Amino acid sequence: MRTFAKSDKLHGVCYDVRGPVLDEANQMKREGKKILQLNIGNPAPFGFTAPKWVTDAVRDALDDPMSQGYSESNGILDAREAILEYHESKGLHALDINHIYIGNGVSELISMAMQGLLNNGDEILIPAPDYPLWTAAAKLAGGNPVHYMCDESANWYPDVEDMEKKITSRTKGIVIINPNNPTGALYPKEILEKIVDLARKYELILFSDEIYDRLVFDGKKHISIASLTEDVFCVTFNGLSKSDRIAGFRSGWMVLSGDLSKGKGYIEGLNMLSSMRLCANVLAQHVVVPAIKNRPEVDPLLLPGGRLFEQRKCICEAIHKVDGLSVVRPDAAFYIFPRVDAKRFGIQDDEQFVLDFLRKEQVLLVHGRGFNWNEPDHFRIVYLPTVDVLSESMRKMDEFLEKYYR
């Protein structure tokens, strides 16, 4: 009998944020069990709703017959103009409207960026830990993702020396995720400048995932790495999913900047791939202008008394009270990446650890190696749930670890 296996291209590709542990949790929910979900960065289920100007823009677009057809392949003009102005305000230089691409979320554009660049065997540097889509997209494009380390003892900043050691003649680019998922780290200017220097020295493209750039705490400011250079080819990714709380709209973009003469062929490839998928969702594109134009200077959610501020405070304090856990406080986004004392608890498989915790305490986390971390000693918490839920989850973790040894 003929059977059909998955494509060889999928060997080594994983996305454990929505993997086997989530499958187990879904089965438990079907059995009537209540699961505390701390696994997915999706604001809507936790009561974070879109601003009124966003929902109003969708209603208005529904009455526009032009919204029912395709747009230009790289996006409607007024949306790209608003995106251009936003990134100019962040210090990006000499931007061209034709080098802005709107996509069905940043995820689609990451895949497009990798497919347009990588030949079989080409290498691209990606952080560890990373958002796993980057590694998966590079593999599916035929490339070889090479992970440079981020240093937990230095606020999870990239280890630039390790980064340089891993550059070879096959390396084509460096990926940074700033602010970072899963650690919540926010990179300072001096680190970004060192990465720019590496890209310049070795003639590499910089890919900067900045989807959390507006979710920054404590009065700190996000610096876009592309604002620090005019001669290095940069691809900057951003969108509305997180800061504007409309993940389901799938509204993201990428912006090319720097010395684009070094990438004429690459840009031709991006234009081809953009055209092949016709265009991004047009209704979601009509949200871009009002979303960007109406944003407050500082999101109240990030200030003392705001939900995200208080939930970050709660989860940090709760983790520090659990014997066997430690953590670096995040400066941005809504993720935290605690360390568990793996030797003390006999943990050799962190996926099994979070699965055991799920089955015993009905709390859903994501294991650290799902983010291409190299040891079984971390897990990610999404702190979008309320303070009560976060406190309960860490109380359960404390009780669980009192008796746990694998």
Could you characterize the architecture of this molecule?
It is a single chain. With 406 residues, the chain is of the alpha/beta class. The protein is built from 14 helices and 15 strands. The strands form 4 sheets. Strands 2-9-8-7-6-3-4-5 form an 8-stranded mixed sheet. The longest helix is centred in the last third of the chain and has 17 residues. It starts with 19 loop residues before the first helix and ends with a helix.
In brief, what are we looking at here?
This protein is of the alpha/beta class and 406 residues long. It is built from 14 helices and 15 strands.
Helical region count?
Answer: 14
Backbone structural class: alpha/beta
The unreliable regions are: none
Distance from N terminus to C terminus (CA atoms, Å) equals 41 Å
Mean pLDDT: 93
Q: Estimate percent helicity.
A: 25-40%
Computed CA radius of gyration, to the nearest angstrom: 21 Å
Task: Sketch the major β-sheet.
Answer: 8 strands, mixed
- Tally the beta strands: 15
Main sheet: strand order: 2-9-8-7-6-3-4-5
Shape: globular
Percent in strands:
15-25%
